[in-house]
CDHR5 protein (Heliornis fulica), 230 residues
Amino acid sequence: QDTDGYFAIKGVNNPEIYLQKALNYDKFISTTLLLYARDRPVGSTETTNTATATINILIEQTDTKPPWFLPCTFINTEKSICISSPYTGRVNISEVSMEPLTLQPGPIYAVDPDYTLNEKIVYNIVGGNTDQVFSVDADTGNLTMNKAVTSPDSYLLQIMATQVNNVQKYSIGSVEIKVINKSDNPPYFESKVYSGMTFVGLAPKSFVFQADDPSSPLMITAVDADFPNV
């Protein structure tokens, strides 16, 4: 079962089976060995009696991998290394959100990749939390605000996901929080109707011109009262 080279035997009358190299649980969860015995040395010309025995070996998973932040992308065919993308979110300046922040590509979430063990994960902010503006729920990973942000500077938080049973099994994920001005008004077009014209035979990506001024490209503009200078 593709486990050649992993197991070996030593001893004559009371042999012991041992591992020659570590097994990968992602590749092997069980294997079968065929033990062959004979009562004469190999090469003997005397009558030799033989017997065989089947040994079924179940392979148990051990705690070998640190937590993975999800979603993540596998970078090898064995699916033993998974790279997560940074989380991103945004908050309004001078406002405190009363709900957990919405992040992309999803909420903060880490798992134990030793999936048959599935050890409990806890979360903690270990960097980037200037003035202690943010908190993370140790159990759920939900990110919340303690106070309003007074500066337009972005935050780059470092979140640690740690296995409860082994603090040496941890991973660090990043969360970029952009601080923006609150938007109370939707954008709107400066004109309800735009009229343009074009010519037969023009190459793709050629300009569409204003209907009342064929020498000027047609310009479609939208404005937002929350950002009057943009």
